[in-house]
Amino acid sequence: MDFMRIAISGSTGLIGTALVRSLRSDGHEVVRLVRRPARAGDEVRWDPKRQHVDTAGLVGCEAVVNLAGAGVGDHRWTAAYRKEIRDSRVLGTAALAEAVAGLDTPPQVLLCGSAVGFYGDTGDRAVDESAPPGDGFLPKVCVEWEEAAAAAEEAGIRTVHARTGLVVSRRGGAWGRMFPLFKAGLGGRLGDGRQYWSFIALHDEVAALRHIIDTPSLTGPVNLTAPDPLPNREITAAMARAVRRPAVFAVPAFALRIALGDMADDVLASQRAVPTKLLESGFSFAFPGIDAAIAAALADSA
Length: 302
Known about the structure:
The protein is an alpha/beta fold. It contains 11 helices and 14 strands. An 8-stranded mixed β-sheet has the order 4-3-2-1-5-6-8-12, sandwiched between helices. A two-stranded parallel sheet has the order 7-14.
């Protein structure tokens, strides 16, 4: 890819931090959208809840990447936090889509975060980007999240929704909370462990995002998951092997529901999403298997 100017929201999150580092290491200019007044030359002010973006800071950007959103697993799903999960994604995406659509010279691509939660509980059935949305809170949020980018699509901007799975990293996200448990010998399967987890190594997540930016043929939803999702019990066994600790503490489904409330149904849901569009576009995974993905996470010292 030629050197580009790229704007990124959610730049301090797990994926955003890694993406910014990767792009800058290759000489690209990255501007970061921040919710406070801009204090540095690489910052652009935005207020997603008020639908405001300082569009002057987006001038000259060939790509805009929207990774902002409240953490799904950061709090219990009270009514207020459900609203925060939804609004932080839908309002932010709508604000950015309208902002780029109004530029005299819009970016070549608007790449928006989404999630495999779009598909709901798929059991042991593999699904790709052609599958319809599932039922429940997270699928509904994902549908609204993706629809919020309509202004950019209508303006003729290539718009992509990166439906990301569980990112394997010890630096954050759900996996970041699992590593200490397994290292302490307290890890174990969730429920009966038969539910499929669609995972992706952080390295491959960043590489896939960059591949999307670079590949004009990719548009609409794109699954960012490793090629072969696995049942939770197999992932649990892989984690135990990697840290050389037993994994005997299975968490019963009823206990999860007591501890997590409504969120438990999504934790126990089975999502077997496969990356058909990525593979067909020529993307190659560096860490396609769970053992390699976990080993890469443990070796990550950047």
